[in-house]
Automatic annotation (TrEMBL):
The keyword Kinase does not apply. Keywords: Signal. SUPFAM superfamilies: YceI-like. The lineage of its organism: Bacteria, Pseudomonadati, Bacteroidota, Saprospiria, Saprospirales. InterPro entries: Lipid/polyisoprenoid-bd_YceI, TTHA0802/YceI-like_sf. Residues 1-23 form the signal peptide. This is YceI family protein. Transmembrane segments: none annotated. The keyword Membrane does not apply. Residues 46-225 form the Lipid/polyisoprenoid-binding YceI-like domain.
Length: 230
């Protein structure tokens, strides 16, 4: 089940807009401070994620088609007790977000737009100059019974652009010779939960067919080695 992330975080649909509210008006439950957003150092985890063996993919859609790409895994790790992951983090390098479709100049233009490196469009999507990483913090897992596609339900908190929301999804956890593999088939995330509003029908009227779907999909394949076995 090596289906990988398919989000317009972690993440990216096609064209979102970040009409970000004043931070003082946001619920503290939906935000984390810079210190809270830092995961434990890899040495504090039993299993350390190997970035070059791990993959995150995303897909976003609109009436005229879809776009897809990848976001590099920057690091993280997991602690395990019995059959369950008890805690962990997956860190994504949003500055290296890639667009795989379309290719060429159109792909580069979309990539710059999503990263927020296109002049005047910094706030449309991820504004990676300000928010360079996204993080999923695992808080608990539970074993699934009689499920052909997954072994566990993973619960945690996803942070994009300093907005944190609870996200749960099914995944397959497999122990391997030197560590473990955690993979998830594509699951949906609502981009507007992270104040990414560009061409969202929830916030803009009279868009007709010129809108971007609020939900995007992500999937992933993460390899983690037990500390000392890399």
């Amino acid at each position: 089940m090596k289906q990988l992330f398919v989000i317009g975080i972690l993440f990216l649909g096609i064209a979102f807009h970040s009409c970000r509210p004043n931070a003082q008006n946001e619920s503290s439950a939906n935000r984390i401070s810079a210190s809270d957003n830092k995961s434990e150092p890899p040495s504090q985890y039993q299993y350390q994620i190997i970035p070059n063996l791990s993959t995150v993919k995303w897909i976003g859609s609109k009436p005229t088609g879809t776009h897809n790409g990848t976001v590099p895994v920057a690091g993280g790790g997991m602690n395990v007790e019995g059959d369950n992951i008890t805690s962990g983090s997956i860190q994504l390098d949003m500055t290296q977000l890639k667009v795989l479709d379309p290719t060429g100049d159109m792909g580069q233009s979309l990539e710059d737009h999503l990263r927020g490196t296109a002049p005047g469009k910094e706030e449309d999507f991820f504004n990676t100059g300000k928010y360079s990483t996204a993080t999923y913090m695992i808080t608990s897992t539970s074993k699934l019974a009689n499920d052909q596609e997954a072994t566990h339900m993973i619960n945690g908190n996803l942070t994009i652009k300093d907005i944190t929301k609870p996200i749960s999804f099914k995944a397959r956890i497999e122990m391997i010779d030197k560590g473990m593999v955690v993979s998830a088939a594509p699951f949906s995330i609502d981009r507007t939960d992270f104040d990414i509003r560009f061409k969202s029908k929830k916030f803009f009227d009279n868009l007709k067919d010129d809108y971007v779907n609020d939900e995007f999909q992500i999937g992933f394949y993460v390899v983690a080695h037990k500390n000392g076995n890399q």
